[in-house]
Amino acid sequence: MAEFVYKRALLKLSGEQLAGDLGYGIDPRVITGLAAQIRRIKEHDIELAITVGGGNIFRGMAASTEGMDRSQADYIGMLATVMNALALQEALERAGVDTRVQSAITMQEVSETYIRRRALRHMEKGRVVLFAAGTGNPYFTTDTAAALRACEIHADVLLKATKVDGVYDSDPMKNPNAQRFDRISYLEVINRGLKVMDTTAISLCMDNKLPLIVFSIVADGTMEAVLRGEPVGTIIY
């Protein structure tokens, strides 16, 4: 079996993925399945951090278009990510994975406040660190938070888990003739306007030479294959 190419990774999960087929909220079967995948990866001593979104509970951007103040809406969205992180933490702990939740907004009763050096120390001790509340600032997406945290912890790779198996030149759900990329550069993603992550997140990865791999986490074992360097998904370099 191939050796692992990436020893320290940050996994970006969207809130919608935690909802599964329910479409809203948290599907216990989904987070249980994710926890099982992560447990198998941790058995190989891979250092892993996770950033989770909150779109399954509340989307700040959508609320702001309906008249809500953007900053207030974004703060509500950040709180939704904390709920998701706590739910995923519980599933991971049940699976036997030691975890810590670190929030960019202070909530000392349920999580640690984000401290970079403490996060690194947790990972060195084999714990999975779940980063919640985005960057702690409105107007920044959880994609940007994922790229920022990945750079801060010196991750070898940023993994963007989606429902599709990579980056396409158009929406494969709407266009059956959409072409998938095996590899694509940061600049091409930006110039083509591909909806992979927001431009700020892509620029952070590009400036720090952080490889970004977009893959489908729906199939069991794909995350492990990605970490082994197998040709799964799309790598953005």
What does this protein look like?
The chain is of the alpha/beta class and 237 residues long. Helices cover 39% and strands 19% of the residues. The protein has a single domain, classed as Acetylglutamate kinase-like (Carbamate kinase). The chain has helices spanning 15-19, 28-42, 60-65, 70-94, 116-124, 142-152, 186-192, 199-207, 222-227, and strands at 8-13, 47-52, 99-103, 112-113, 128-132, 157-162, 167-168, 180-181, 183-184, 212-216, 234-236. It has a 9-stranded mixed sheet, with helices on both faces. The protein has a two-stranded antiparallel sheet with strand order 7-8. Helix 2 (28-42) crosses helix 4, helix 6 (142-152) runs parallel beside helix 8 and helix 7 (186-192) runs antiparallel to helix 8 (199-207). The longest helix is centred in the middle third of the chain and has 25 residues, at 70-94. The chain is globular.
List the helices and strands and how they pair.
Blueprint lengths: L7 E6 L1 H5 L8 H15 L4 E6 L7 H6 L4 H25 L4 E5 L8 E2 L2 H9 L3 E5 L9 H11 L4 E6 L4 E2 L11 E2 L1 E2 L1 H7 L6 H9 L4 E5 L5 H6 L6 E3 L1
Parallel strand pairs: 1-2, 1-6, 2-5, 3-4, 3-5, 6-10, 9-11
Antiparallel strand pairs: 7-8, 10-11
